[in-house]
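Table S5 (text form). Sequence records supplied for joint modeling of the two-component complex.
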Amino acid sequence: MINCELFTCDAATKKLYEKAKKERIDTVWDRALAMQPQCGFGEMGLCCTNCSMGPCRIVKVSDDGPKAGICGATEDTIASRNFARAVAAGSAAHSDHGRDIALALYHATGKIRVKDEEKLFKIAGEWGIAVEGKDASRIAREVAEKALSEFGKIFGKLLFLKRAPHKRQNLWDELGVAPEAIDREIVEVLHSTHMGSDADYRNIIRQAIRAALSDGWGGSMIGTELSDVLFGTPVPRKVEANLGVLKKECVNIVVHGHEPTLSEAIVMAARDPELLELAKKQGAEGINVVGMCCTGNEIAMRHGIPMAGDFFQQELAIVTGAVEAMIVDVQCIMPSLATVAKCYHTKLITTSPKAKVPGAIHMEFDEQKGLDIAKRIVKEAVMNFKNRKGEVYIPDVKSEGEIGYSLEAIIKILDRVTNSFAHPSGTVKPLVDAIKSGVLRGAVAIVGCNNHKQPHNSCHVTLAKELLRRDILVVTTGCGAHSCIKAGLMSKEARKYCGKGLATVCELLDIPPVLHMGSCVDISRILVLLSEVANYMGVDISDLPVAAAAPEWMSEKAQSIGLYAVASGIYVVLGVSPAVTGSENVTNYLTKDLESVLGGRFEIEKDPVKAAEKIAVHIENKRKRLGI
Amino acid sequence: MALFDIIFEGSKQALEAAKAAVEAAIEKKGSDAKVAFPETAYGLPAIYAATGKKIGTLGELRDALSIVESLIVPEQNLEKALNAGLATALSAEIIEACKYAVEEKPYSEPCVGFISDAVIRSLGVPLVTGDIPGVAVVIGEAPSAQEAAKVIKDYQNKGLLVFLVGKIIDQALEAKVKMGLELRVVPLGYDVTSVIHVVTVAIRAALIFGAVPPGNLEELLKYTRERVPAFVNALGSLSELVVSAGAGAIALGFPVITDQDVQEVPHYLIVQKDYDKIVPTSLEARGIKIKITEVPIPVGFAAAFEGERVRKED
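The corresponding structure-token record, covering 942 residues in total, follows.
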């Protein structure tokens, strides 16, 4: 057994891990321990299985042993190919998410109503779709069609690239990395990393950059923008977080996964009077829907649904014994959930044809019959309430925070400090002024996952606190957001962690110092915010005193995010090294040389305190270069 | 130059000037010579409120310089920048105290210089009742006497208490703005450092009405920010010293509105080049809402004119 004092800083996690151990349930940490030592070849990216002549490995630790694959691929080729494929997979995951949202919008006639027409019109305008004399559902359909064509159009570049500063767009064109169509770029990575294709690590990474940019400025941005259109653009609201949000007396439904189409329907279904009545008949006080991971972020941002937990807490939610159903769709769903659920009454319900789990109940979700299916799923949960067995234990650990900081919400908040006689409203000017004057030193996005190679949550939280102290505003998404809200960093009291400048800004704007901007696809919100700031200042994103960090990243999606951030000109600090360290050339390219090409680069720093120091130095250097 | 660097530079200049003033005063009067402002129980009010120490002699004043010095730490963050602003305020007080130590009557008509405790006590009630809805500190020089008068009279009409520092005093005289405490337009002095005499009004308000314990800087700043509805109009070219004094105002919670090109700070440092909008911009920045209904008559009408005397030549 592992020492849970060291592996997490979260109290609820510690308590439930102990319960899991008592009940002999293996969790992610136990499996990670059993996996030790992990394979060095894989860890360094020096293992290739791309053809059946392999597997091949490059031996670095001694002079003897192979220095090239059977086909002749060098360590540079193998490491860069592996990295590129990971990026392509991440981009594919986000992009498929975006496509599903676009499809949902396409079908948004009749039952599903478009919630944010203003945003719909704005996107239509951006994309050159005429709106005169058309009703919202027709415009929605045209916008959706245009969005869907982004995935496989034959000619032209991605439409959302135009949101980037001109300098950035020109740079992408010069370097030949401006993506054309989302799926196309992912396929091209798979092609060029096939045996006997691309062997030039720089060229392989160039293609990976195209695939990554097609995620950030394509798939993810479509996912975010159209989710806002469909379900409403988030506005600030209070929300509770951590596993203490489960309620003993209620039917607890955990929605876990990524796509808001499912979770939105579940939220609606759980408010159905018939189902509530049914829940009461089963002896429950009500139906308590809570969210996990990114779908949790989506419904928290839009409806204030409690954020039950992050990636590493998914098994522990079931261990409480209080979860009637865990409803999942796609991405970051541990297949172990089926095994854990079997020990309790919990029903694991998969809903996507793209993500089935052996041992789970599959109730396929279809956007067009969304609410009906959602009601059936909720009913399944309600009827399961009486089947609870064993000890129900919900740790009394939860915190509260303010979330819902979409770009639109942020700009509206900034108007609070404009003077109506001296300033325009509706711009990023106050943010730019706060940064230029030095009151804020800069801004950092803390994003990413959980990873057993880093202490759970504490890297996110430590890094955030270190930055706040230095008057650096933190924005966050994904499981970084879960970590921060659990640690109380999204409450007003979190001002006590801030330097005077940031504390003053928070007080004037009435905001917490860590702004929850949404799910992992919502990192696209950060790209748009940075573009607005850069455009206002007349500079490129790479000139801004900003950085990004993924201190506990885990997934291929995180690698795609990291690379599109770098390619957008951002300094990205990773707490866990990607599997490229076997190649010095590839490592140097990603962590050094790329900066002179794209203005952004990766930095590997495991220690969050040192990461904060490096970020602060980076930010001050950018300030100096701007003369501010 | 980055805004904070301008502030640090100005604070250093103020400190150097304060050091020179103290040395010159000691040379003239000796380090045991008394130093005090007239008619106050609060010593040198800014230093007293910030440190809890009452300065009695020039020698003690020299020792106080090290406090000022310790406040100037040129690190790039707001806290240090505001501290440097406070340092400038303290330097200004030291310089002004030296004037009073060396000269019998350092200020003469129309300037009033230091303001006595009695006057502050008399201002307390109208400030609390909102009869004086705000305190405008106008420093520097407007483009012309007409523009200066327009801004000053507008404040006066709205019942605000207006303090003038610098060439704006001459512009007000030129435009025949009637001045005096009873008219709520108070010319302090021509040197930038004389602005400290309005700062100590706010500080003594905190000590007298807010019962803020001397030496509790944090509570002092909270009181001035929340309870003293003051703001600054810095007009005309801005030296590093003025910018750094402005940081001192911001530390007290008073927004600065200027007609010059500077890097704006949301809420606190605002550029307004349109003279017709300086007054509304300032009132909004400080959250001052005027209770008076403006009566459409051809002369100014406000409590500020209550004590006005109509002389023969008028």
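Note: Chain A has a mean pLDDT of 96.
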